[in-house]
Amino acid sequence: MADRGILSSLRYLFADVIGDDDAPTPILPEGLPEVVVPVASDAIAMLIAYQGPSYAQLYVDRLKRFVGRRGFDDPDFAEVARLMAARMSYEDPIRIAQLTLAASETAPVPINEVKKFRIDELVGALPAIVAEPVLDTLEWLGWLRLPVSIRFSAASRWGIRRLKIEAGLKRWRMFSVRYPKEKAWVERWLHMISRGLDKQPSAVPAIVQSAAMIGGYGDPYRQGVADWNAIIDGLVKPTFDGVLALGNLGDAVTEARAAVLPDPRQAALKRKIAEIRAGVPNPA
Predict the structure, then answer these.
(1) Which residues contact 233 (CB under 8 A, 6 or more apart)?
(2) Do 84 and 102 lie in a common domain?
(3) pLDDT tens digits for 243-276?
(4) Is residue 218 in some structural domain?
């Protein structure tokens, strides 16, 4: 009875402070290529479960930018739809609780897993008004990268209740420190694709696929973000800005990605980017 009372109180608190997302289910935009329709339909359903209808509508609005866009091949469009859904459902602890609950319904044995996060990743899932002073303190102490292990277990009634509480925290996600960073990343990726269609269409498939560099959580996730930014800032953006006369940008991006190693210093990647740039004549 006490557990039910606590859960009910938490639900009411979340509903009062943030409110339920009662927006209508988004519909697919007109003119969407046939090959994209099933990918986008699955993505909408997944993003509603991940965050809510309003969040899924953001996904649809982003897709609309490319409907009827000249030079944009249907397979590339389908990959944008797939990869964008993956990036918009990034793996924070809330998401892992959601996935654990869903998997527990069909798993032959109870799920009982331990995941390792960085402490700044856990705090970053909280609302900014709470998280920012905590993150400042952790940075001052030098503890931002401190590893933290969290158990996600559906092996007991309490474990399942805890997962439901954690999954219910998705209401806070849009107010978190991490969300605006993820939003900015997706927007930059889409912007580079759009610029590629205008300036070097042959490079678009490589730019689209570059989103696959980022995934998971913890240090691998942050390494992927850093490597992606190094390639975009070192090769893609300078080419589109006219600073770098790179005639085959797509191959250069693929070559740079092949040099990526799990190295926080990015030594091999930085050497490869410098090598590619050194072989390009000065636009002036």
Answers:
(1) none
(2) no
(3) 999 989 999 999 999 999 999 999 999 999 999 9
(4) yes
Q: How confident is the model at residue 20 (pLDDT cuts 50, 70, 90)?
A: low
Residues 227 and 201 in one domain: yes
**Comparing C-alpha atoms, which of 52, 85, 87, 56 is closest to residue 171?**
52
Find out whether 117 and 148 touch, Cβ atoms under 8 Å: yes
Task: Name, in order, each residue with C-beta under 8 angstroms of 282's C-beta and a sequence gap of 6 or more.
Answer: 245
pTM, rounded to two decimals? 0.88
51 lies in a domain? Answer: yes
Q: Examine residue 284 and state whether it is found in any structural domain, yes or no.
A: no
Residue 32 pLDDT exceeds 90: yes
Mean pLDDT check: name the lowest of 10-14, 39-43, 50-54. Answer: 10-14
Domain end position, chosen among 48, 63, 89: 89
Instruction: Give the DSSP letter string of 249-268.
Output: HHHHHHHHHHT--S-TT-HH
Is the pLDDT assigned to residue 7 strictly greater than 60?
no
C-alpha distances out from residue 66 to 48, 206, 241, 249, 253, Å: 22, 17, 21, 21, 22
Residue found under tokens 């389908």? 78
| Helix, strand, coil share of the chain (percent; to 5) | 65, 5, 30
Boundary of a domain, candidates 144, 173, 202 = 173
User: The domain containing residue 49 runs over which residues?
Assistant: 1-89
Q: CB-side exposure of 169: number of CA atoms within 13 Å?
A: 18
92-144 tens-digit pLDDT: 999 999 999 999 988 888 899 999 999 998 898 888 999 999 999 999 999 98
Amino acid at 95: R
Question: How many structural domains comprise the chain?
Answer: 3
Whether residues 129 and 151 share a domain: the answer is yes
- CA 179 vs. chain centroid, Å, equals 9
